[in-house]
Design goal:
This protein has 2 helices and 17 strands. The protein is mainly beta. The chain starts with 7 loop residues before the first helix and ends in a 7-residue tail after the last strand. The relative contact order is 0.14.
């Protein structure tokens, strides 16, 4: 059976259980659904006809009837994307400061990032899980859990994952921007 899941309310009608992710509804809740993508619990008490959706991009708490009217409100937000899943893996922004940005990057086995450099920022990578290879200014080196790599502004760099590879990437500089990325042709097979 086809059902358009274009609103939170219609999504909750298709859910097998009241909660996806870590959530607790007390016995006084009626017709409450929670979709929690965060690494922290959601507790709902005394609610009725409510949908709660929690993700790194934001938290929605809405009466189910009102949930279809969120678009103009969400469109007015200018928040940076905080999480994305891609074919190569995922990234999650963990911390944003005036002159630093901290990201957890997960590369799936056999995938790599583009060979690139940044004009206005340095980067420090800490490998927290897995094994792979880093290429820094044309030199390849093996990396594993616990390794720390530093790439100053202008340095060409990339990562290749031999296993799932998780890296904490800290960007440092006065002008941190997604536009500050210069891509280079792919390197010969490594």
């Amino acid at each position: 059976t086809w059902k358009d899941l274009g609103t939170w309310n219609t999504l909750t009608e298709a859910m097998d259980s009241a909660c996806v992710g870590e959530a607790v509804l007390n016995e006084t809740c009626r017709n409450v659904h929670v979709v929690n993508e965060l690494d922290m619990p959601v507790l709902c008490m005394g609610l009725q006809d409510i949908v709660v959706a929690a993700s790194p991009e934001g938290i929605l708490v809405s009466d189910k009837e009102q949930s279809s009217y969120i678009k103009p409100y969400v469109s007015s937000f200018t928040q940076q994307v905080m999480f994305a899943e891609k074919s190569w893996g995922s990234f999650r922004i963990m911390d944003v400061e005036k002159e630093s940005l901290t990201i957890k990057v997960t590369l799936n086995p056999g995938h790599k990032m583009n060979y690139h450099s940044h004009e206005f920022r340095d980067e420090v990578w800490t490998v927290i899980y897995g094994e792979g290879r880093a290429v820094i200014d044309g030199e390849e080196r093996r990396v594993k859990t616990g390794d720390v790599l530093r790439m100053p502004a202008g340095c060409r760099h990339m990562l290749l994952a031999d296993t799932e590879l998780q890296v904490i990437e800290v960007q440092l500089g006065k002008d941190i921007s997604v536009q500050d990325k210069k891509k280079y042709p792919p390197l010969k097979p490594l």
